[in-house]
Amino acid sequence: MKKLIFQAALLSIALSPIANAEPLDSEQQAHVKQLVRETLLQNPDIIVEVIDELKRRDEAARNQAQHSALTNHNTELFKNSLDPYAGAENPTLSIVYFGDINCGYCKRQDPILESVVKNYPEVRIIYKDLPILGPSSREAAAIALASAKIGNNTYLSLHKNLMEHAGAHNTQSIANVVNTMGLNLEMLKASVDDQINQQLDNNIVLAHKLGITGTPALVFPDKVVGGFTHEDRLKEMIEERLN
Question: Residue 202: helix, strand or coil by DSSP?
């Protein structure tokens, strides 16, 4: 132990910048490298500790960046009047849902969010379509947002029916869902304007700023949760914030 303390102290002195000190010559550099090597070989736990510390710092940096992003983009996330939503008109807690119509895990997440709305009348789910899984994702998201011009409930119904389709969509399967609902497909396509395309582009940019790299993702006012969230865990997170 004394030897380790002595070596660590020596390393600290050798490696720390000293005002007006001459740079190490090649022989001194070789000696320091050898000392470091011997220390690590004799005490390999140091490597584990260093890796753990780097992970801790990396996680702390990510959390800080996430916190800053949530603060800076709070209005875009929770107060965009263009975003469809389910649940409370005057919510105590709002959760933003980034999803893709073609995402298999989103198809599992959706029913859980519907259950949340039923069981927590003070919660609002805000839908931000994130079409990242190909052209049909973009097509379906645009048509779904066009249906929101008819009404918020129309969007929710179309979103639900699109999500219930097994597997990835194509143009025909999207049309089949729209027609089965009795909606006018051509009218919806014509309603896909610059505002809707900009809204989808903004969702992609916002997700990137929040560090979201895939779907589904749920955003609380104080936390971003990437990936599929099981119902029990989601309820725990909601109750932690309501109580």
Answer: helix
